[in-house]
Amino acid sequence: MNSVLSLASVLILTILILYLSYVFTKSLGKGIGLKRGGTCMQMLDRLPLGQDKAVAVVRMGSHYYLIGIASSQITLLAEVSEEDINIENKGTDTTETIEGYPDFKKLLKKYTDRHKKDQ
What we know:
four-stranded antiparallel β-sheet
């Protein structure tokens, strides 16, 4: 009977330690993320080109930059005007989100409206 109680207490203590370490690391991670975030810079769009390679549009204040990202370096490709970015956004399909995947709600509305017109 004594061995069952000691085994149960060790099990409960282990679970408690694991839970407390999970809560501690989660709260620690949130604090680090807040300190690391930028207030005047924002990545507007990113296009992956291959493994560890991408092209991105970054806003810094009122300036926009096209940058190339590789595993070993980041290169400034061009400075982009705000008009070029707004023209590109107007020309995109309205059913796509920022990530490039279709927005389900908009697609559903598009196809249900089309179905209603057919009837």
